[in-house]
């Protein structure tokens, strides 16, 4: 059915239709233990080593709510300007899937812990307000691994393996109200929103928020309506989109696909869709009606959650500075241009640059090393800049050696090599690799004499008053001393000798 749909180019689709989006973002909390039991939540542990009767749903096992998870849920709700429920309950969402051992997911239904919020995202200097419908608590499912097929999908596999370590890890699901922004902005607003949530979760310290590891996952709902109309069209729900770029691509693709169906006089099927990284397309998942009967009912084994107003206010006082405000503040403190700031944020280096400056480096130098030398190395190695084996404190130490005149920029590159290779602190690398600048007059003087002897014509010019020509001699001395000469002192010596 949908595989034969003609895709309408995005811009063309926007001449006839307006997109409406809804984003559901799942955030895995970084609590030490699971939502309703004491099992550990360590990522990447041996399969089925972090399980117990509660998270395996064995008969008679009784769950207990993780207070730290409730605390994180409230802080997330507050950071999203939500109202926090005085009293709310968990609910059972009943369905069968092998990765969910209880045959129901403990979630929240009509009584979410946080609701009616809003937040703002910025795209190309324009601010968009996103209304938040609710943020509710639930638990993650286990993971299935389909073996024997070529694609890793269930289709074609000979058997499946189940790992329940993730079953019961606390999740917060953040659901927006329908987002109605100008169609051409929709893909970037969706991307900016998910990016903004990630920043917010990191600032709150409640999650690793790693899309690549699934600790932050986005479902993209999208529908089209004819330009100038108000009734929403039928939506599709593209599940588990796992990068910012993919969020943007999924929106674009679904706009093109829906427009193709509508242009042909067809109707969009309300269904889940899978997103394909390879070509940015989506394919049909399962049909899903709004009247889906999950037989929700209040969870009888858990006490209601009734956070006192005092607790909520205490938690409000722990909220971090909102990420967008922090960026504005830092930009003005550092004297960065809009472009400097965009480059820094884009390189994922904001916190690294901030920590380097905090450790005593000037903003310009911190930016130079992280966006130059270190960004280049992270690109070459295909790792996140934050994953390079060097700390902001180490970068600050290298810069302080430069400021003290003990190394120059060129030698600093070798110090970076050494520190990144695990050879120790900047000081240790300088000592072990013999990288210190030579400013001892004895050694420098001999090298300057040699350079003068080798370049009599240049020396003659300087004698005749052409001081700019000293650069050529400094270069010659540097070459002799493998870049380790103190350039300022060399210059003084040249001028002394030739005046
Ligand atoms: P479900 O249980 O099907 O995932 P939710 O209410 O949790 O439904 O989430 C649906 C999301 O889609 C919300 O963000 C909502 O604002 C949005 N949404 C609802 N109707 C439409 C529509 N017609 N077009 C686009 N988005 C929609
Ligand atoms: Mg949902
Ligand atoms: Zn458990």
Automatic annotation (TrEMBL):
UniProt family annotation: Belongs to the GatB/GatE family. GatB subfamily.
Stretches the record annotates as Disordered: 271-291
Top-level EC class: ligase
UniProt cross-references to NCBIfam families, sorted A to Z: gatB, PRK05477.1-2, PRK05477.1-3, PRK05477.1-4
Residue intervals of the Asn/Gln amidotransferase domain: 351-498
SMART domains: GatB_Yqey (SM00845)
Subunit structure: Heterotrimer of A, B and C subunits.
Role summary: Allows the formation of correctly charged Asn-tRNA(Asn) or Gln-tRNA(Gln) through the transamidation of misacylated Asp-tRNA(Asn) or Glu-tRNA(Gln) in organisms which lack either or both of asparaginyl-tRNA or glutaminyl-tRNA synthetases. The reaction takes place in the presence of glutamine and ATP through an activated phospho-Asp-tRNA(Asn) or phospho-Glu-tRNA(Gln).
PROSITE patterns recorded: GATB
Known catalytic reactions: L-aspartyl-tRNA(Asn) + L-glutamine + ATP + H2O = L-asparaginyl-tRNA(Asn) + L-glutamate + ADP + phosphate + 2 H(+); L-glutamyl-tRNA(Gln) + L-glutamine + ATP + H2O = L-glutaminyl-tRNA(Gln) + L-glutamate + ADP + phosphate + H(+)
Keywords noted in UniProt: ATP-binding, Ligase, Nucleotide-binding, Protein biosynthesis, Transferase
GO biological process: glutaminyl-tRNAGln biosynthesis via transamidation; translation
Listed transmembrane segments: none
Name assigned to this protein: Aspartyl/glutamyl-tRNA(Asn/Gln) amidotransferase subunit B
InterPro entries, per database record: Asn/Gln-tRNA_amidoTrfase_suB/E, Asn/Gln-tRNA_Trfase_suB/E_cat, Asn/Gln_amidotransferase, Asn/Gln_tRNA_amidoTrase-B-like, GatB, GatB_Yqey_C_2, Gln-tRNA_amidoTrfase_suB_CS, Gln_synth/guanido_kin_cat_dom
Record-listed E.C. numbers: 6.3.5.-
GO terms assigned for molecular function: asparaginyl-tRNA synthase (glutamine-hydrolyzing) activity; ATP binding; glutaminyl-tRNA synthase (glutamine-hydrolyzing) activity; transferase activity
SUPFAM superfamilies attached to this UniProt entry: GatB/YqeY motif, Glutamine synthetase/guanido kinase
